[in-house]
Amino acid sequence: MSALTESWLNALPKVELHLHLEGSLEPELMFALAQRNQIELPFKDVEAVRAAYEFSNLQDFLDIYYQGANVLIHEQDFYDLTWAYLTKCKEQNVVHVEPFFDPQTHTDRGIAFETVINGISRALKDGQEKLGISSELIMCFLRHLPEEAAFDTLAMAEPHLDKIIGVGLDSSEQGHPPEKFSRVFAKARALGLLTVAHAGEEGPADYVWTAINDLKVGRVDHGVRSSEDAELMKHLAETRMPLTVCPLSNTKLCVFDDMSQHNILDMLAQGICVTVNSDDPAYFGGYMTENFVALAIDLALDESQARALVQNSIEGAFCGDQRKSEMAALLNGY
Ligand code: ADE
Ligand code: ZN
């Protein structure tokens, strides 16, 4: 590791902008919920689940991730899932989070939209009140499904607009470009929602352009393949478009062969607003601290870079200016 220690990185005030709540389902909670809901799991025990987490690409992971989500049935299950994530945030001094959830993963199994959003929102409210962690929730559309299904999901969300700040786009990227969802994103923006989209994770730099130009995103999730397009890199730097980069995810899903090859610090040096995030921590071997530690070990992350990465997350967050000032003060006081 570079001069930065794990304990310094753990205590550093941090902000997470790219986290799938379903991806924070640890095998222990998966088993507990399976038992509570009398659901048969295709794994003998927790160790067997962890042993299955070897992925060669995004789709490999998604297949097992959607299967894991089957244990989530009742409002309390969604509460427990979210609460477990917030508890981890508290341990790692993550002071503000903007998590994603995938309603279609649940509504397509017959779970009511209300069950999902009420469980998550109740935990986020408790997170603010009991742990002091502020949050903004983002609802993602699954891009492997038709745009029509995303419109249906947006309609279900309309009575709950007070609980979400924006919409996002996730799931299988290749072959499902952002522009497939232009109309539903326009409708979401007309409803006052902000927008983000996964782009340039496995998909080409062109998808980053269309996320920006067609979906009018306020942040790009991942975006690491932007480095293949010099014009795009210039545009990202000039506009300070935030990229929510997920280092451990990228190596687990073989976007980069090895952490030493990761381009996050090169992008930072080029003036791009890159941020560090955990994506699906239960599946990829770590939460926020572990992602920072990986950069310290393999890319010799130094203190000024670590601070700049957190500052970028504050800049890219969707919360109000007052909360941003509070977070900047926490960071500067550290
Ligand atoms: N859903 C959960 N994690 C994802 C990722 N890394 N890319 C696309 N969809 C996802
Ligand atoms: Zn993601």
On the 0-100 scale, what is the average pLDDT?
98
Q: What does the largest sheet look like? A: 7 strands, parallel
Strand portion: 5-15%
Radius of gyration: 19 Å
Q: Please estimate the helix content.
A: 40-55%
Just give the CATH class: Alpha Beta
Spell out the helices and strands N to C.
Answer: HEHHHHEEHHEEHEHEHEHEHHEHHHH
| Gross geometry | globular
Give the N-terminus to C-terminus distance in angstroms: 21 Å
In what order do the strands lie side by side in the largest sheet?
3-5-6-7-8-9-10
Active site: 201 (proton donor)
Family: Belongs to the metallo-dependent hydrolases superfamily. Adenosine and AMP deaminases family. Adenine deaminase type 2 subfamily.
Keywords: Hydrolase, Metal-binding, Nucleotide metabolism, Zinc
Function: Catalyzes the hydrolytic deamination of adenine to hypoxanthine. Plays an important role in the purine salvage pathway and in nitrogen catabolism.
